[in-house]
Amino acid sequence: MTLRYDVDAVVLDIEGTTSATGFVVDVLYPYSRSRFAALLTERSGDPEVARAVARVREEIGEPDADAARVEKALNTWLDEDRKATPLKTLQGIVWSEGFARGDLVSHFYDDVVPRLRAWHAAGVQLHVYSSGSVAAQRAWFTNSPEGDLTSLVSGLYDTENAGPKQEAGSYRRIASATGIAPGRLLFLSDRPGELDAAREAGWHAVGIRRPGEPYFEQGVGDHAAAGTFDEITVSRSTS
User: Fold this and answer.
1) What are the mean pLDDT values of the chain's consecutive 10-residue runs (239 residues total)?
2) Which residues of 71-98 are buried (b: 16+ CB within 10 A; e: fewer)?
């Protein structure tokens, strides 16, 4: 069955939706873990790094924590798969450098990029909303197996500039930032809590269910579901 939506924009989750969670967990997480120590010591004066480190210290309640203690906290959060904003910020910096060096190439499911190109060509805006930082998102779309895809994407949103992904207020902020009415936005994600929040904010929401992904067995609650992007038809009326 094909799901059909007349909307002005599609907002995309990444892990489990456009891309394999396994790639993030098995490739990107170890990469960041191996490079946190160097980042914290060699770039401690970088304003973005310093702000993230200050937030780590705040979250662990240790204002004087040294680089080793901060690194330990980051690795603990990695083990817990915690969506902590300072962790995502520092991961984004590490991954951006890794992509730029050619150490990393991102992953997209085979059905995703052709469908994104078709939607974009039809005049539908594409935005990204991921727990990964904006820097990581930009690096991800810049360094895909099919080349630089950033020209397809109009906006990037994360937990810092939009808010937590399971809160309706975050989706209201994104709608406001895009200038698009909530009823003209479609959110694609594999996580039912995120789909619930988007719907509460007045958006359309479709659950993406890919075999082997962490949320596949759980399902997407009472939301419409698709196994691939090929099962979703998006158009933008001009009337």
Assistant:
1) 95 97 93 96 94 96 96 95 91 92 95 98 97 92 96 97 97 98 98 98 98 94 97 86
2) bebbbebbeeeebbbbbbbbbbbbbbbb
Whether residue 39 contacts residue 94, with contact meaning beta carbons closer than 8 Å, is answered with yes
H or E element: which one contains 129? Answer: strand 125-129
- The secondary structure element, H or E, covering residue 86 is helix 85-101
Token output for 191 = 């996580």
* Residues whose CB is less than 8 angstroms from the CB of residue 77 and which lie 6 or more positions away in sequence, other chains included: 84, 87
Distances (CA, A) of 87 to 24, 48, 71, 91: 14, 12, 10, 6
For helices 47-60 and 67-80, the axis angle rounded to 10 degrees is: 70
pTM of the predicted model as reported, rounded to 2 decimal places: 0.88
